[in-house]
Write a structure and sequence with these properties.
2 copies of one chain form a homodimer. By secondary structure, chain A is α/β, with parallel strands linked by helices. In chain A, helix 1 packs across helix 4 and helix 2 packs antiparallel against helix 4.
């Protein structure tokens, strides 16, 4: 068999029912009454999920390793034992009231790809590693995407050890307990070389479903910018103070939101603009508000659009201040990133060869792949999620779509693992 | 002397220094560090203020009475002991961080008018009563203007007795303690006849100061309408959900506020429109808000304008709902009220005769006079307050303006108390 034929043979060995059965087994760990999961990073539930992965790996004879932040590695060996592996993976932790697929699909679906490759009898030059990154959600310990960030050297492990959750538990203690729960594993260094990285994930948005398309060949992660806007006016009596004499922080902030909507207007519906937090003080019906605090979440994949909008956010707020004082503080400033063109092409190509409809699309959310993209050729595979609902117990996906993603992933992993 | 001459003679006996000295003595009771007062209704401070009034009344030989809700009456007798009295007054309770003059001026200035009339040797046909109404502010027990409302039969005393303040004290207990603090007083029935009622008050707005005018001949109390608006959308991921697929409760509510501002637009700057409370849920920067609750406070003195605006409030909200569900609940619906034309003319006439600049104006805030207006010919006298600041420890007024108001009040009381 040539390399392409081997890739397609591995894909053909993906078993939809086996994959779905494993997804459901994983979803039982931390299951919530409403059908979601609550599996906080480094919690008992997270440890049970890890042990389940180790158990599955043992059943198939795959090697298991870890590192200093408990990222968990499962290896399908290659002919060249010392070659840098091709890697797939995602995360097992969830939002407090999260869904069954966000993260878990990238790990369980990645495991299915490894099993399919093995069962197809396909042997690659490079090893293929599956990784479950620690604490992607950041629900218990902030920031999220911590395991991949520490691996990539964006964060230092030492700086994270003192973090404390709401119950007063330090990350250091939770981490030690987690590492102790899977004893005897090989320890890998942070930043050890990857030949390539491909992450499978549910889309967490409605574009694939709306387009009737099964596979998203992810082109990159859109830029993400957060601002906190503080508007300061003057308290005044609602009955007696003429409108022209007021400095009304609420009305000024409402005008800012309205005007920012105009700045963000986009016929292609690509721009994401959200005001998620909005606080009004003192909050008495008969008192003109003196202070409003609100957040801006602005995202776009295109640096040219970002370059046009970003410098106008502060001026648009100030022009609509209506006599109030305005201060704007940036809190997140993540430029958009592009995945490797060859990996994008490969995802698109194998999806089509396997008979799946496919489209190129940026990722709206951040992922571990964002950190790994700085280390090696990286890409992502999206599958549809029902109505685009994610970070929600109602999150759902179909067995067929999950299998289609695993097939595409298996093919890409084999192809990449046979490249020099 | 004819009746007008007696009225002017009484006014001439008003003593600016004595009035100011009494205002400052009253302001010491419940004084706050920042120069305001904290004198909750039926509190120890309120009782001290009442005892001070009783002491001053005793010094001048004025009779003191009370009623079942501890409204406090001080009488300057008339020739006809049994005739319905002409009444002036206001309240001694304050906002938690209130000013020295809101309410207290109407009581202390009313006392100055009584003293001036007595010292001028003017004897009127009817008695002249000063009343300190209980619990106008409603800061401790809601609603406010309780004493005048119970007096006027708008509220029943029985319904108020079970009210509980934040410390768990019932109104019944606080009232009993207050009545016991001024023992042996004559008990008057609620709703006993008044011949007329004139209340002096600081304006609580900036119109007199801006116009350089000393006396406001108050024409009535503007209409007051409160609504609670609930906007229900759908939680969604800020990074992945296209704007066109969202039901964003925050943006819809901001558009409503913006559009309501257009509906309320008024070149004469008479309309009062305030959104004082605005809550946004769930309040996470990366989540599209699913629920916003905000209040509307709309006021205007003119029934024709109210009739044009009121029916449009709900449609304007619904037109700007952007796919969200909107429900609007009215919580206050107080039609504007007009004071007695003869009393307004009289205030205007005496202010001018006494050499004070005077203008007609509606009251932006509610007052005890609003309830009494239903019982007898009623009017109000406004004096300027600095920068229009009220319900605030920085509230201020000048001795000269307070004296001008007391002079105008004294003249009106004498004139009214000599009418059949």
């Amino acid at each position: 068999m040539d390399a392409k034929a081997e890739a397609l043979a591995a894909a053909a060995a993906v078993d939809e029912a086996r994959l779905w059965s494993r997804q459901m087994a994983m979803a039982e760990i931390g299951a919530t009454e409403k059908g979601g999961v609550n599996r906080a990073a480094l919690s008992d539930e997270d440890r049970r999920a890890r042990r389940l992965m180790v158990e599955w790996a043992g059943d198939l004879g795959f090697e298991v390793a870890t590192d200093g932040i408990a990222n968990l590695y499962i290896r399908l060996p290659g002919r060249q034992a010392d070659a840098a592996p091709v890697v797939t993976g995602s995360h097992l932790d969830s939002q407090p009231r999260g869904g069954r697929f966000d993260g878990a699909y990238g790990v369980v679906g990645g495991f299915e790809a490894l099993e399919a490759i093995a069962r197809a009898g396909v042997e690659t030059e490079r090893p293929i590693d599956l990784v479950a990154w620690t604490n992607e959600e950041g629900g218990r310990f902030q920031p999220g995407a911590m395991g991949s960030a520490v691996f990539a050297g964006v964060l230092s492990l030492e700086d994270q050890l003192g973090l404390v959750d709401l119950q007063g538990v330090t990350l250091e203690d939770a981490l030690a307990e987690t590492l102790a729960s899977t004893p005897g594993l090989e320890q890998r260094p942070f930043g050890h070389p990857f030949a390539a990285y491909v992450e499978a994930h549910i889309e967490q948005g409605p574009r694939l479903e709306n387009a009737g398309t099964t596979i998203g060949a992810v082109t990159g992660i859109q830029g993400l910018y957060w601002y906190t806007v503080e508007v300061r006016g003057e308290e005044a009596h609602a009955g007696t103070t003429p409108l022209k004499a007021r400095k009304d922080a609420l009305k000024a902030a409402a005008h800012m939101v309205h005007a920012l909507g105009g700045l963000m207007a986009d016929e292609t519906d690509t721009t994401r603009f959200t005001v998620g937090r909005f606080e009004c003080h003192p909050g008495s019906p008969a008192t003109v508000p003196s202070r409003v605090l609100f957040t801006i979440d602005f995202r776009h994949p295109d640096p040219a659009v970002i370059a046009r909008i970003k410098p106008n956010i502060e001026p648009v707020c100030k022009v609509n201040a209506q006599g109030c004082a305005v201060s704007i503080r940036p809190t997140i400033d993540n430029a958009p990133l592009q995945f490797d063109p060859a990996v994008i092409d490969m995802v698109e190509g194998y999806a089509a060869r396997l008979g799946h409809s496919v489209m190129r699309m940026p990722s709206g959310a951040g992922h571990d792949a964002g950190h790994i993209n700085h280390l090696c050729p990286t890409g992502m595979i999206f599958v549809p999620c029902e109505r685009g609902v994610s970070h929600n117990e109602a999150e759902n996906a179909t067995p067929a779509d999950l299998a289609a993603g695993a097939r595409t992933l298996a093919a890409c992993l084999v192809d990449l693992a046979n490249q020099e």
